[in-house]
Design brief:
The chain is mainly alpha-helical. It contains nine helices and five strands. A three-stranded mixed β-sheet has the order 3-5-4. Strand 4 and strand 5 form a beta hairpin. The longest helix is centred in the C-terminal third of the chain and has 41 residues. It is globular and about 40 Å long. The termini are far apart.
């Protein structure tokens, strides 16, 4: 028990020792950037082995052009940028630590334009620069440590009491900590991505159009998960935030124009 308490104190001491770029949000980062990048590379290699890569030359060329253009306006240690277009009908894109960005062909009918694609890529790049992967892994470590400490503290209780307490802890941390944390990261990636696309010379007002089209698709598919049980913000809330930060992004866009 003493070791658990000592470990908890050590984690608490380093909590908040980092800040997210652009927003200044305090972060808990218990994993160094080199280790984080290595984990991202390993995961990306597995995905490329398991998911077919698109051979659409035009779509691939556009992805590389837009991706490299946005990556040129950011700086992050240990990043080796790679942009891959995967053959998948799911309208999705993802980022892994170390600069690994995957985009599914299923999202291209929603992006529609180069600026729409820039919205998606800038959002994913913002996840990388803000080190959201390391942040989530750090949160997981802390939650696991808390569960271990709780289990040890309940050692003298009945099996029924222990099971109920651990179940309550699991639900409480998932809904009360991990899911809101994911939404915080999504909002942050939207906000920072808006700045990145603007600095790279892409029109940030097109981000609103992209998310409105994404919202229409969600509605057509009957998506209705309550926000408090979702890792992503609701579309209306997301669009409202983007509109709120558009003036700042437009200033960056005007400054970046020749």
């Amino acid at each position: 028990m003493r070791r658990l308490l000592a470990a908890s104190c050590m984690l608490a001491a380093v909590a908040g020792c980092a800040t997210a770029p652009e927003t200044g949000r305090r972060q808990v980062l218990l994993i160094d950037s080199a280790q984080e990048a290595q984990l991202g590379l390993q995961s990306f290699q597995k995905i490329k082995q398991q998911t077919p890569v698109s051979r659409d030359r035009q779509a691939n060329a556009e992805l590389q052009s837009v991706g490299r253009r946005i990556a040129s306006v950011v700086s992050i240690p240990n990043a080796h940028w790679e942009f891959v277009l995967f053959e998948s009908d799911e309208p999705n894109a993802f980022a892994l630590p170390g600069g690994k960005i995957g985009v599914n062909t299923g999202i291209l009918p929603i992006t529609q334009t180069e600026d729409g694609l820039a919205t998606v890529i800038a959002h994913e790049i913002a996840h990388v620069t803000a080190r959201h992967g390391a942040e989530r892994m750090s949160q997981d470590l802390i939650v696991q440590l808390g569960g271990t400490a709780l289990s040890a503290a309940l050692g003298s209780q009945s099996a029924v009491t222990r099971d109920l307490a651990m179940q309550a802890y699991g639900v409480g941390t998932e809904v009360g900590v991990m899911l809101p944390y994911s939404r915080t990261q999504e909002y942050e990636a939207d906000r920072v991505g808006l700045l990145y696309m603007a600095r790279a010379g892409f029109d940030p007002t097109e981000a609103v159009g992209f998310w409105e089209r994404f919202q229409s698709q969600n509605r057509a598919n009957g998506a209705s998960t309550p926000e408090f049980l979702s890792t992503h913000p609701l579309d209306d809330a997301r669009i409202a935030q983007i509109q709120r930060f558009l003036p700042q992004a437009m200033a960056e866009y005007e400054a970046a124009r020749p």
